[in-house]
Amino acid sequence: MLEKQLGDVEARLEHLYDALETGAFSNDELAPRIRKLKAKRDELAATRNRAESALQFVEQRAFLKSFVQDIQIGSDEITVNYTLPMPPAKSEKEVIGVLPFVLNGRPCCTIDRTFELAFSLIKLDS
């Protein structure tokens, strides 16, 4: 809907520019309408940019939630428990996944898909 409104405003601006170029109307007659439409275009573009940013944030959050199991915050340590996306057993190539990769040869060991990452908190003197 936003794109349609932006397209409509752009088309209306084009018509006004054409009318100005052909001399059908004077600059004084069209200037206020052009300014109003430009302001509307800028407002719609800003709204579209905010919506795209919000969508990107939601997508990034969903991506992280797909493999982060939990985050534990202690008094001096933060622990992130996560699962790396791995191809199914006996699969040479991952078809769908976050990080596609190809296995060369037979696996030589079993990889546990669950990991723990811990960060130590450092107290900074003010």
Please outline what is shown here.
With 126 residues, the chain is an alpha+beta fold. The protein has helices at 2-22, 27-65, and strands spanning 68-73, 77-83, 114-120.
Estimated structural class = alpha+beta
Please tell me the overall pLDDT.
Answer: 78
* N-to-C SSE string, H for helix and E for strand: HHEEE
Question: What is the global morphology?
Answer: elongated
Helix count from the secondary structure assignment: 2
End-to-end separation:
50 Å
How are strands sequenced across the largest beta sheet? Answer: 1-2-3
How many beta-strand elements? 3
Number of domains: 2
Radius of gyration: 28 Å
Q: Low-confidence parts lasting 5 or more residues at pLDDT below 50?
A: 107-111
Amount of helix: 40-55%
Largest sheet: 3 strands, antiparallel
Strand % is 15-25%
What do you see in this structure?
With about 130 residues, the protein is of the alpha+beta class. It folds into two domains: about 1-65; about 65-120, no CATH class. About 50% of the residues lie in helices and about 15% in strands. Strands 1-2-3 form a three-stranded antiparallel sheet, with no helix packed on it. The longest helix has about 40 residues, at about 25-65. It is elongated. The two termini are about 50 Å apart.
